[in-house]
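$ ./design --mode recover --in tokens.txt
reading tokens...
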């Protein structure tokens, strides 16, 4: 049977991993500045995470949501402490798209309204409503098309005001990433997020903070939206939550009431996924990963800003992007092929860095040295 060919692949087979390094089948080591697409939060194969999952596997891996699963409550309690959202409620699912799908549905159930405000360059996932709220027509199937999504320019406070004046009483939710990831690392301004909050309050809409990529400590605070000093009504989470074990979830503000049957899933919140997610939060706490992320991110950002060829170095913590001029358009490829470093990209000519939050200072220096050499090599070729 052939694999359904939807991924443009690098011709590399990764066989093992540890911390911020991965190794291919020939034994070559790569520095992972991509974190498997922002998924590796506490480091590949962290021993505490492995032990937690192994221990759980030997007890029970799965039972359905028809019984009490104490690990879910333990995860909710730990999330309350680490995120600081102590009075929120937790619903567990399996992926980022599913988290946003549930968030959007919940907002519509709660308000009885249909319209969703989303933003240019957003990415919220590939399920029906999440993809409809994603600004990329090429991945929206005809059946996903809907008139219920209003796209506004990102960070445009006036457009937001005007939209609410015209349609405020029909809007169920505003959904926005704190930092757009797939869209190219675009940081939401504090004023923008504060305006979302106050307009949602004024018109009775819900504020959904898509934290699938920018959340879970990646910016040095638990949620990127926290930097603006506002609370959202719903936070969607996935990627870093399981450090590679598939799990997603939404945090739901206390004023939103649940009803039996309103949301549901077979696999969401299973024993094994909860054990993995608990291990992640335990390591984030014991290794002070959010503080380290803020410090290491600031250092990396400062060093990148000092490299004259890089354009508009931006981001927060360990979610960083920069543009490269046309003569450096092969930089990502060269970093991978010659310098054995994984990075991410966003078109056109934007490189994204989304490493593990446990990235060490020496690894940052290793990356910077290779980056400078790669730029020098490309400059020489262009001359
Ligand atoms: C901001 C954001 N939301 C949602 C998703 C979808 O997550 P998943 O691929 O787990 O469905 C992504 C994935 O890249 C994302 O970056």
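writing sequence...
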């Amino acid at each position: 049977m052939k694999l359904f060919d939807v991924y443009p692949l690098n011709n590399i087979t990764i066989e093992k991993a540890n911390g911020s390094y991965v190794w291919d089948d020939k034994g070559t080591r790569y520095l992972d500045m991509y974190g498997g697409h922002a998924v590796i939060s506490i480091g590949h194969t962290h021993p505490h995470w492995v032990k937690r999952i192994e221990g759980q596997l030997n007890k029970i891996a799965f039972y359905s949501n028809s019984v009490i699963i104490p690990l879910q409550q333990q995860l909710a309690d730990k999330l309350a402490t680490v995120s600081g959202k102590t009075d929120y409620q937790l619903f567990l699912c399996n992926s980022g798209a599913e988290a946003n799908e549930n968030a959007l549905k919940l907002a519509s159930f709660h308000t009885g309204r249909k319209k969703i405000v989303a933003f240019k360059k957003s990415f919220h996932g590939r399920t029906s409503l999440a993809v409809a709220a994603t600004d990329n027509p090429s991945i929206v199937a005809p059946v996903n098309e809907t008139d219920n999504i209003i796209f506004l320019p990102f960070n445009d406070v006036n457009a937001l005001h005007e939209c609410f004046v015209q349609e405020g009483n029909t809007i169920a939710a505003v959904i926005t990433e704190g930092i757009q990831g797939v869209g190219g690392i675009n940081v939401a301004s504090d004023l923008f997020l504060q305006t979302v909050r106050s307009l949602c309050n004024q018109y009775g809409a819900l504020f959904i903070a898509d934290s699938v990529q920018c959340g879970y400590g990646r910016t040095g605070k638990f949620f990127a939206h926290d930097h603006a000093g506002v609370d959202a009504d719903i936070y969607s989470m996935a990627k870093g939550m399981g450090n590679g074990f598939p799990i997603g979830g939404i945090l739901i503000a206390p004023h939103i009431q649940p009803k039996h049957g309103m949301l549901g899933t077979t696999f969401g919140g299973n024993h094994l996924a909860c054990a993995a997610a608990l291990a992640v939060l335990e390591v984030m706490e014991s290794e002070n990963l959010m503080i380290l992320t803020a410090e290491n991110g600031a250092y990396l950002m400062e060093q990148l800003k000092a490299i004259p060829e890089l354009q508009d170095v931006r981001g927060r913590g360990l979610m960083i992007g920069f543009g490269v001029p046309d003569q450096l358009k092969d930089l990502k490829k060269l970093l991978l092929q010659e310098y054995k470093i994984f990075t991410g990209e966003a078109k056109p000519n934007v490189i994204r860095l989304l490493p593990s939050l446990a990235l060490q200072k020496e690894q940052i220096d290793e990356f910077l040295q290779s980056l400078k050499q790669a730029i020098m090599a490309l400059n020489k070729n262009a001359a």
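exit 0
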